[in-house]
Amino acid sequence: MGKTWTNWAGNQRATPQTWVKPKSLGEIAAAVGEASAQGRKVKVIGSGHSFTGAAVAQGVLLDLSHMCRVVSGPNEDGVVEVEAGITLSALNEYLFLQGRALQNLGDISYQTVSGAISTGTHGTGVHIGGLAQQVVGLTLVDGQGNIVEINEEDALLHFVRVGVGALGVIGHVKIRTVPKFALHVEEKPMRLSFVLDNLEDLVSRNDHFEFFWIPHTKWALTKQNNRTDLPLAPIPSLKKWWQKSFMENTAFGMVCRLGKLFPALIPRLATALPGSGSTSYVDESFRVFASERKVKFVEMEYAIPYEHCRSAIEDMERVIFEKNYKVSFPVEVRFTAGDDNVLSTAHARQSAYIAVHMYKGCDYGPYFASVAEIMAKYEGRPHWGKMHFLSNEQLSRLYPRWAEFLAVRDKLDPQRTFHNDYLDQVFGK
Questions:
Q1: Which of 80, 113, 114, 273 has its CA 20 to 30 A from that of 89?
Q2: CA-CA-CA-CA torsion for 215, 350, 290, 137, nearest 10 degrees?
């Protein structure tokens, strides 16, 4: 019996025939070329934070954990070249020492760079695109084991930045960085009705705005992050431990476990979540963007046109009440600019992202299905790294350049060396 791989949430697993840990582009190319010649399938794993089957490998599993170095830079244009297996947390620390930073980040930093961009990882900020939009070049190994250099002026870049693992193995990534910056953070509970009534103002006047609506209550936890020249004033260590470690992880995990055992208690338990008070502090950007996540869950997230955000949240509030769903996790809402990546969930439209979660081991099916129906009303595009139920036919109607992407796939991977059951589902065979 071979070694078994399991993702972070524990909802995806595989026992590949061959487990390879390449240390260079050449070793990736050799492994892919050999597998292609033998008609075997190849999949790549990073840190395993995708909730879908995108990385599930039955043939050859490529583990990029040894490809975690900075290759060069940042240069005079702020561009840094890294190996694809480097984690965002490691890259953030390196850039900080160089006086640089990534322009925006999601709220998880232990993803690998290649996994994060391939699935369209984003942060929040209505005038800023996702992480892939910061990529200015890639080195890719295609389905025959050829090494392909893709630069900023190459139209192919708009296809491969968010490739969902269907176009090749990303070996190196070039990312444009910015001078390091601090963020002034204001975290406070607000009435959900106030947030929705003032959504345009809250989103437009903050560099980064997001909120977490607590189902079964009328409250939302809001985060307003803005670039600042104020001196650093991080959360004091004891207060940080209490709020970020104990309350958001230990205590919240206890609430989730109790709710799993006694679902009828969840609405009452939810009333305690907005009571953590207001917090204001100033810290380095990468220390603000990322959150510690110790409570395991499964997640589904959709991007919808920004203008439909309020209606979608109101629909969700109604459905949770009418169907008596017991939801212990907050609903996370973020915002991004539109971009030009062909399979980006924000392709060509300013977007609101609505994410729902369910504690590990709980029945998520009915709740997620109801939310998916709501998102379909607003032409919702599911996050590529998170759970969804859509097929190739359904997805093709959501992306105006879908056929062009499939044509690029035919060119780079005509034998479907990188396909598995999940990619068959979303792209067809």
A1: 273
A2: 150
Report the alpha-carbon distance of residue 6 to residue 13 in Å, rounded.
4
Rounded to whole angstroms, the Cα distance separating 20 from 41 reads: 13
Element containing residue 226 per DSSP (H, E)? strand 219-228
Q: What residue ranges define each of the domains in the chain, with the CATH number in brackets?
A: 5-63 (3.30.43.10), 64-179 (3.30.465.10), 182-382 (3.40.462.10)
Q: Give how far Cα 64 sits from Cα of 57, 112, 113, 172, 342, Å.
A: 14, 9, 11, 11, 25
CA angle 330, 334, 340 (to 5 degrees): 145
Can you give 383-410 as a three-state secondary structure string? CCCCCCCCCHHHHHCCCCCHHHHHHHHH
Q: How wide is the angle at C-alpha 190 spanned by C-alphas 283 and 345, nearest 5°?
A: 70
User: What is the rounded CA–CA span in Å between residue 176 and residue 178?
Assistant: 7
- The CA distance from 364 to 251, in Å, is 22
Q: Residue written as tokens 């510690």?
A: 292
Q: How far is CA 82 from the centre of its chain?
A: 19
Predicted model pTM: 0.94
Q: Where are the beta strands (DSSP E) in 285-380?
A: 297-305, 331-336, 351-359
Structure tokens at 101: 């930073």
Residue whose token pair is 């996540």: 293
Residues 298 and 19: their CA atoms lie apart, in Å, by 26
